[in-house]
Design brief:
This protein is of the alpha/beta class. The chain has eight helices and seven strands, in the order βαβαβαβαβαβαβαα. It has one domain: Rossmann fold, CATH 3.40.50. Strands 3-2-4-1-5-6-7 form a seven-stranded parallel sheet, sandwiched between helices. α1 packs across α8. The structure holds adenosine-5'-diphosphate and magnesium ion. Adenosine-5'-diphosphate (ADP) binds next to α1 and α7. Magnesium ion (MG) binds next to α1.
Length: 225
């Protein structure tokens, strides 16, 4: 089964959130075997899981969450080999930290089957995402034999109020750049909703499934078919 990496060098774009929401969707709605590996020192998923085990019982969890500390390039590479070989029956979802320069994360991007890159339409986020795309391109040039991920961009945390015509035009231009320059597909957006903030690692609420349904059904097509 594929190894899916949620990455963008910008923090706060929804990498951990979407990783968990998609893990809940695959395990709860699609009945798939899923494992989540968190590599961000913030351990937000891991801490949430501890709470969820207390609330619903450890034995009821539908997937495992592991925290893995990235400390050397070799260990990161070994982790990806393990994901592909030892966990080959699972969909492995990896939450990658921001700050991709010095955290030994290159192997995660090189060996991933899918790179899911959440972003928002804000100048700083767009700048960082552009840098991230450059990093991906550079890595691809360095490792053309091994690196061949499908890259999927997800506009996340989008204000549900319709923007002005000009704003909408700008968004479309951004999406176009990611498609052409970023070598990937732009998936349907996910709105900014309070329900997304009430996320746990046990299962999605109906509202959470609804909020993510357009995006996740596209994702499912790539990942499950
Ligand atoms: N679609 C959304 N609607 C509302 N809040 C969101 C949404 N996506 C992310 N958030 C919130 O934004 C913050 C940053 O998200 P997080 O997943 O931690 O980002 P990252 O892992 O990229 O640093 C969190 O507080 C999260 O609850
Ligand atoms: Mg995070």
């Amino acid at each position: 089964m594929p190894v899916i990496v949620f990455a963008n060098q910008k923090g706060g774009v929804g990498k951990s959130t979407l990783a968990v929401m998609y893990a809940n969707h695959l395990s709860g709605v699609k009945n798939k075997r899923v494992t989540v590996w968190e590599t961000d020192v913030q351990k937000s998923i891991y801490e949430q899981r501890k709470d969820d085990e207390l609330t619903w019982g450890k034995e009821n969890m539908k997937y495992d969450v592991h925290y893995i500390q990235l400390d050397t390039l070799q260990n990161s590479e070994a982790m990806m080999v393990e994901a592909k070989e030892v966990y080959k029956d699972d969909i492995v979802i990896i939450d990658v930290p921001g700050n991709i320069t010095d955290n030994y994360i290159a192997p995660l991007l090189i060996y991933a089957d899918f790179i899911i890159c959440p972003y928002m339409y804000e100048t700083k986020v767009l700048q960082s995402t552009t840098t991230f795309i450059k990093v991906l391109k550079k890595l691809k040039k360095m490792f053309p034999e091994v690196m061949n991920p499908k890259i999927l961009y997800v506009p996340n945390n989008i204000d549900p109020r319709e923007g002005t015509t000009k704003e909408l035009e700008q968004r479309m231009q951004v999406d176009d750049i990611f498609r052409k320059n970023g070598g990937g597909e732009v998936l349907p957006k996910i709105h900014q909703r309070a329900d997304v903030k009430r996320l746990n690692t046990y299962m999605n609420t109906q509202k959470q499934e609804y909020i993510s349904s357009a995006c996740f059904s596209q994702l499912d097509k790539h990942i499950l078919e």
